[in-house]
Write a structure and sequence with these properties.
8-stranded antiparallel β-sheet; Porin; about 240 residues; single chain; alpha+beta
Length: about 240
């Protein structure tokens, strides 16, 4: 596939997700009311339970699809409010010879003892985050929430030469990720969901010169492990 075709497809995805994001943020503004704050306040008086998980979000860097992996853990208050922390990082595809791999890989050549070497510094994007999620609608089949995430970390290019890891253009970053999330429970222990939002860079790495602001989305399959356990071992539920 040519780079032009990749750019066209990425741009189409970008526009589609941007439209979803626009309507999602409109929803989140609508639910911001005094009643919401009262609900959040009362939830924190309930005994919390542990929550956590692993997710893959589709985002874009310079118009190219760039999956972000996230692992997180936190507390769930009354199935209405979730708070916690996690870590997120960019998942790169392998370097492909004969293709333009920028901005994810660079082609760098230098001389060492009269020998020319070529290396391919890889883009690293890693950040820790804290999150807050308010569930504003919860029924037997449907759930809608507003997850908000604030992250801090760094971006850099990194490569290995003669067994030594070398880092270039490193700089810290600060970002904000508002979103809207929806889930539909198909059967008792299995459902599907869609998260739509935006990555907004408050502080970015000017030395890299790559655009990290991006719509983001996650189409996911959901297994409700507690319900699955009770479905497999009904006698334990009794």
């Amino acid at each position: 596939m040519t780079n032009d075709l990749k750019n066209i497809r990425s741009s189409s995805h970008f526009l589609l997700v941007f439209l979803f994001s626009f309507f999602s943020f409109a929803s989140s503004c609508f639910i911001a009311s005094a009643q919401v704050f009262d609900s959040i306040s009362s939830s924190f008086h309930k005994r919390p339970v542990l929550t956590g998980g692993f997710a893959t979000k589709s985002t874009f860097i310079n118009g190219f699809r760039s999956p972000i992996f996230t692992a997180r853990a936190g507390l769930d208050f009354n199935h209405s409010v979730r708070v916690g922390a996690g870590v997120s990082w960019l998942k790169l595809s392998p370097y492909k010879k004969g293709y333009d791999n920028s901005p994810f890989y660079l082609d760098k050549s230098f001389m060492d003892s009269s020998i020319t070497y070529t290396v391919h510094p890889a883009l690293n994007f890693l950040y820790v985050n804290v999150f807050f999620e308010y569930i504003y609608f919860n029924s037997r089949k449907w759930q809608f929430s507003v997850p908000l995430q604030l992250g801090a970390g760094n971006t850099k290019y990194k490569y290995n030469f003669n067994g030594v890891n070398i880092t270039e253009r490193r700089h810290w970053v600060l970002l904000y990720e508002p979103a809207v999330s929806g889930q539909y429970r198909i059967i008792r222990w299995f459902g599907v969901g869609l998260d739509v939002g935006m990555r907004i860079m408050f502080v970015t790495n000017k030395a890299i010169g790559t655009k990290f602001d991006s719509p983001m989305y996650d189409i996911k399959a959901i297994i409700y492990w507690g319900e699955l356990y009770h479905a497999v071992f009904p006698e334990k539920n009794k």
